[in-house]
Request: fold
Amino acid sequence: MHSIDIEALNQQIYLDSAFVELLNAETAKVIVGQTNMIERLMLGLLTKGHILLEGLPGLAKTLAIKTLSSTIAADFQRIQFTPDLLPADIIGTMVYNQNTSKFAVHKGPIFANFILADEINRAPAKVQSALLEAMQERQVTIGGETFKLQEPFLVLATQNPIEQEGTYPLPEAQTDRFMLKVKVDYPAKEEEREIMRRNLNNEKFGEVNAVVKTSDILKARQSVKKVYMDEKIERYILDIVFATRNPKEYGLSNLEPLINYGGSPRASINLALAAKALAFLQRRGYVIPEDVRNICHDVMRHRIGLTYEAEAENITQEDIVSQVLNRVEVP
Reply:
């Protein structure tokens, strides 16, 4: 492991990640602020990880993913989830052709590179299970025939945290499939002033150019895998995840009655992957503890189950992750 030439790797990653600045410059033409959300969307791109954005309406969730997909020469589809949606509305169906007297496959909107699943928690379980196959297996089955989805394939789902009427909460098995759950917040006052001015002057949409090809993204994914992660960082990641499962062993006995279940092995995998991708975005060839801490809440918040006691005391997953981060020793 120690024979890795960090200096050479650093230079290689610096060259491979040059397109990141192009993407940032293009998205900034349309999106004011929300740098955290844009960065998280790029992490998903670089790691094949699906992302769940949670935030109130009007916080540019849809606009951000639309803009990002415009900067990449890729197909984008938006699916508005509603209670009457059917699986066929997403994946497609068999259609009878009178001219040929045969059934032909009519592909649905899932056959794109970027899927925006708007208000995903409004659709019933059958629709979500159809989406789950696409997310997990990266394939779709229509009428007994299986179709591979083209890479890059990314599901970016949004949900509104406050309006629960007519919604179907996502099952744990499905939320675990999302690499990150990102909380989208209000813009700062200066940013909102800029948004207001652009809208009043009809300058909301700058001309966004496709500056990156899908082949560049696939190449960058290979580079992310090469980012060096020291054994100490690996142990640090495992300690964080295991502290949510056995808090007592880490001197966090107070968390024991609050946690119903801790992070799954997907938490460890995605924490390591996201930390590598974050180092790549910062044009660095190695992972530092700060990368892990930076991304930890987004990877862990939807993978920890709370007990009734925690809910009664208004303790959130964020509080638990913060306590774990404060307690587990940083390498």
The mean pLDDT is 85.
